[in-house]
Amino acid sequence: MLQGEIVQADTEKESGAIQQVLVVDDSRLQRRILVSSLKKWGFEVIEADCGEAALEICRTSPPDLVLSDWVMPGMSGLEFCKAVRELSDNSYSYFILLTSKSEKNEIAQGLDAGADDFLIKPVSSDELRARISAGDRILGMQRELSKKNRMIEEALDELKVAHDAIDKDLMQARKIQESLVPELTRDFGSSRVSLLLKPCGHIGGDLVGMFSPGVNRLGFYSIDVSGHGITSAMMTARLGSYLSSTYFEQNIAMERRFNRFYALRQPEEVAASLNSRLIADTGIEEYFTMVYAIVDLRSGLLKMVQAGHPHPLVLRRDGRAEFVGDGGVPIGLLPDIPYSQFETQLSPGDRLLLYSDGFTECRLSNGEMLEPEGLLQLVRDCDPQQGGQEFLDDLFWRLTQVMSDEHGMEDDVSATFFEYNGP
C-alpha cells in the first residue's frame, strides 16, 4: 500500500484502515526511529515508555495498531499484550511484538498471549511497512465482520420484537378460535356429544361443533380446512359463523319453520350450500373436508354427509366396529358438485367417532402412518368404561405415545364423539 493510499483510507476509521499507532518501548531512541517512519507514512502516533502507561492509553482510547517491545522493565511486552486482550472493549487492536527472540517456543508464547505478528529487531523499514499493510488488511476484514455482526444483531433484535408481536397476536387468535368451541361436552337428554380440538401450532385449521334447535334434534360435525396456520384458522372462524350454535339465524344448517321454530336441514343440502358459498368467494383457494351428521334422538336414526373427510367410525355396543361412508368430494374444490347422504341406525349404547386425518396420518416411530386400522386399535385400547371427554383425552394420549419423536405432531388433531343412549 502506498503512503497516499494509507492516508486516504485513514479518513474513515470504519473502513478498517490503520489510523492510530501506539509505540511502546522503554528506549527513547527506538521510539524515535519508529515514530519518525510512522509519521512519514501518514499515521497518527502515540508513545509510551512502559507497559503500564500503554495499558492506560488502551483503556481510554484503543489504538488501531500497537508496536510493543517484548523486553521492558516492569510489565513486559508479553504481559502487556495479555492485558490488552483482557480488556472488555469491543474494539480490536492489531498487536505486533518487537523482539530479538526468534526461537519457535518464544514465538508460540507471544501468539498464545494474543500477539498478531512479530518483528525481529533491528526493525527494517520495508518489513515494518509490509507488516503494517498486512495488519491493515486483517484489521479491515475484522472490523467489516464486526460491523456485519452488529447489523445481524440489530436485525435479530428487530425480528424478535416482530416475533413477539406476532406471537402475542397468535395467542389472542387462539383464544378467539377456542371461543368457536365454547363447550367440549354437552348432554342432549340421555345422549352426549364430546369434542376434541388440538392444533399443532398456536392456531389450527380444524373445527368441531354441535348444535340443537330443539328437543330430540341434534347436529354435529368435524371439519378440516386445507393447509395450516393463519389462513386456515381464518377459514375456520368463517365456518364457525356458518354453523353457529348460538345464532340460529346465521346457521345455514337450520331453517326457520312457520316463523315459530328452527329445523335441521338435510346434511346433503348443508354440504351443497357450503360448497356454493365457498366457490362464489373469489380469491379463496382453501377448501375443506367435512362430515356433518344429524340424529333423531328418539329413533336413533343417523344421517350423514361425507365430503372428503376420513370415514366415520361406528362403535357398536356389542364390540363391533365399522367404518362407514363413501368418501365424497371436499367442499370448495368444484362447483355444482352433488353431495349424497347416507343413513346409519344407532341403538342405545352405540357410539360414533368423527375425526380428522391428524389421527390417521400421524407419523409413527417406524416412519409409517397410523392409518384407520391403527386408529381402531387405539380406540380398542382405551378403557371401555370411559365415555365423553375422558375417552377423547385417553385416545389423544395414546396417539402421542405412538407418535414419532422426530416428526412430532405435524397436523391438527380433532374429533367429535357421539354417544347414543336412547330417547
From TrEMBL:
Source organism superkingdom? Bacteria
CDD domains listed in its UniProt record: REC_OmpR
UniProt cross-references to InterPro entries, sorted A to Z? Bact_Sigma-Reg (IPR052016), CheY-like_superfamily (IPR011006), PPM-type-like_dom_sf (IPR036457), PPM-type_phosphatase-like_dom (IPR001932), Sig_transdc_resp-reg_receiver (IPR001789)
Q: Which Pfam families match?
A: Response_reg, SpoIIE
Report keywords, A-Z.
Answer: Hydrolase, Phosphoprotein
Biological process, per Gene Ontology: phosphorelay signal transduction system
4-aspartylphosphate-modified residues are where?
69
Phosphoprotein: present as a keyword of the record?
Answer: yes
Where is the Response regulatory domain positioned along the sequence?
20-136
Q: What Gene Ontology molecular function terms does this protein carry?
A: phosphatase activity
In its UniProt entry, what is this protein called?
Transcriptional regulatory protein YycF
